[in-house]
Write a structure and sequence with these properties.
Elements (H helix, E strand, L loop, with lengths): L12 E2 H7 L5 H9 L3 E3 L2 E2 L6 E2 L5 E3 L2 E3 L6 E6 L16 H4 L9 E2 L8 E7 L2 H8 L7 E7 L5 H9 L1 E3 L2 E3 L3 E4 L7 E6 L6 H8 L4 E9 L2 E2 L8 E3 L2 H8 L2
Parallel strand pairs: 9-15
Antiparallel strand pairs: 1-4, 2-3, 2-5, 5-6, 7-9, 7-17, 8-9, 10-14, 10-15, 11-12, 13-14, 15-16
Helix pairs in contact: 1-2
Length: 245
């Protein structure tokens, strides 16, 4: 009886996955860049979507040589005064200064926190996961501790629960309440929206000034044992939980 020859394992990884692992973008976005000719393999434009990158191949994206990196995940407890961007033309401090020693991989922040806002900010070179966590359909939960300039009216909390209309549409909190054991100037608010400055705009709309804003939970990750200004690598269990969202 003739025995079937075992199949040889396929060499290399798909080009779109290689680009995603280099921290450029998600695989879906990589397909678009491949299609329009932004990617070269061995100095030739590569538009073959299923091409598999071999260890000897040289891949370039917009003229820059790429290197596949091990997926890396870093969590920062951001202090105020830092921009959540990879670079700033005005030379202001960015969150990249805080995670400079975390890894040699090319990580970028997932989503944003404005300059005065503190709290949890995730960094990764996993383009697929970053895309997933910032896409509105994923519904990633974010919990904030807000300190206002005056006591918050209970009716206003109810309005936030039921929904208010801002200039870019309706918004309502998943949860909102006074912080237990604190004054009525302190509120906890949970949202899944990623709209720009959304927490500040909610309270400004209702006539309050936000004194401090701190993100204390992001996609199930917390600030436990992570002092302000410090970072840590995610555990394998935490990474798997994020991928299951």
């Amino acid at each position: 009886m003739n025995k079937k020859k075992p199949k040889k394992p396929s060499e290399g990884i798909r080009l779109n996955k290689f680009i995603a692992h280099a921290g450029i973008c998600s695989r879906r976005e990589a397909d678009m860049h491949i299609k329009i000719g932004s990617v070269k393999v061995n100095n030739k434009v590569m538009t073959e979507m299923g091409y598999k990158v071999k260890p000897t191949d040289e891949v370039q994206f917009d003229g820059q040589r790429l290197k596949a990196e091990k997926p890396t995940y870093v969590l920062l407890n951001k202090p105020k005064g830092f921009l959540a961007t990879t670079r700033d033309e005005k030379g202001r401090k960015t969150v990249m200064d805080l995670v400079a020693n975390a890894t040699k991989a090319r990580i970028v922040p997932v989503g944003r926190l404005d300059r005065p806002t503190t709290g949890l900010l995730l960094f990764t070179n996993d383009g697929d996961l970053a895309k997933k966590l910032t896409h509105p359909s994923t519904g990633v939960k974010k919990l904030y501790h807000v300190v206002l300039d005056k006591n918050v009216n209970g009716q206003h909390l109810q309005s936030i629960k039921e929904g208010i209309t801002l200039d870019d549409g309706n918004i309502k909190a998943d949860e909102v309440s006074y912080v237990q054991g604190a004054s009525k100037r302190e509120v906890g608010i949970a949202l899944h929206s990623g709209r720009n400055r959304i927490v500040r705009r909610i309270f400004e709309y209702l006539g309050y000034e936000v004194i401090t804003l701190d993100r204390v939970l992001f996609a199930g990750l917390t600030k436990k044992d992570l002092p302000r200004g410090h970072w840590r690598h995610l555990s394998q269990t935490e990474v798997q939980q994020l991928k299951m969202l």
